[in-house]
DNA sequence: TTGATTAAAGGACAAATGTCACAAATAAAA
DNA sequence: TTTTATTTGTGACATTTGTCCTTTAATCAA
């Protein structure tokens, strides 16, 4: 399992076994059950979570109490509340498990230490954020240029394996349409 | 003008005059006229642009030929096609000037060199990307949780000074609604 | 298993938004 | 200035999407 994180990081930068052991010593392991919150709105959220397995949703609760889903996270992805993580503010997002989930987490402080001692890792995190940025930009483009039907088809193409694991209600919330509208789309 | 970039960077990391001169030596200056393209779809886009002044739009042309605006950039902001910049692929975005615009630009290669020689700058760019990530996430949340009226009000709150400088057609394109719909919102 | 909760589909109607057309106002160019 | 584009507003109507409601199916816990 430790190897899973190593392999993940090595997609971006090369690491000797010794170096990885050093990197790994900055992480903690933590497991969560289905329905459990990893991050909860209003609390501090100083950690960035690497998902070993499982499935989570990251969402925000709007004024009228509606949930809006920003992201689904699954094996080998990272989740956090970036605002809370980087600015040390209280979380405005909720990250909750849809399945039992195991994680490696690193606190902001430990990450700073790690990057100071091993510059490569600064590069790793920087690259990771850049890729996330590209993903978010793609999502914005999809939201402003496509209707519900096309957004759903785009979702199917991007995450074909998640459809079975996530209730339609949540996919609708991710796409920014009502559950009923999603239910009426042609399921080609 | 050189000081403007220094002050901008110093909001994130401290730099001696000597260090900044070194940083600055990795940048080039380039000016553009209104209507001119900084980045054009299909071309390579190896540079990241810091805007000294002026106004630009970053957009994508959809299948049916419609323009969808991802971002407006003005003094002290950065613009690029992140995908093209980081993956060395051809640009899928257009960045075009709405006003005469002066920039400092840094190529991907020069940025890599700079970060290798002055680790602080890796931290600077990393922080910059993180803040951009937070902004994009906020935008997504706005798009999936608000109707046209509220998205427009949100835009007014976030960019009160841009409204006079940007035609409504483009604001509509940024918000993901038709020009006519935007025109009919209550302009409270 | 049984009962309770949750998820999904679909009808009926209202509200929001898009499209097309045209006219007025404004800005840019000659 | 005059001429030409561009921008903006608005009406009429079609389409999309949201809301409320009921029913059925599926899932989960005791």
Automatic annotation (TrEMBL), chains A, B:
- Which domain of life, per UniProt? Bacteria
Pfam families, alphabetically? Answer: cNMP_binding (PF00027)
Q: Which SUPFAM superfamilies match?
A: cAMP-binding domain-like
The name on file for this protein is Crp/Fnr family transcriptional regulator
Instruction: Check the record and name the InterPro entries matching this protein.
Output: cNMP-bd_dom (IPR000595), cNMP-bd_dom_sf (IPR018490), RmlC-like_jellyroll (IPR014710)
What is the organism field in this record?
Galbibacter pacificus
Q: Where is the Cyclic nucleotide-binding domain?
A: 30-116
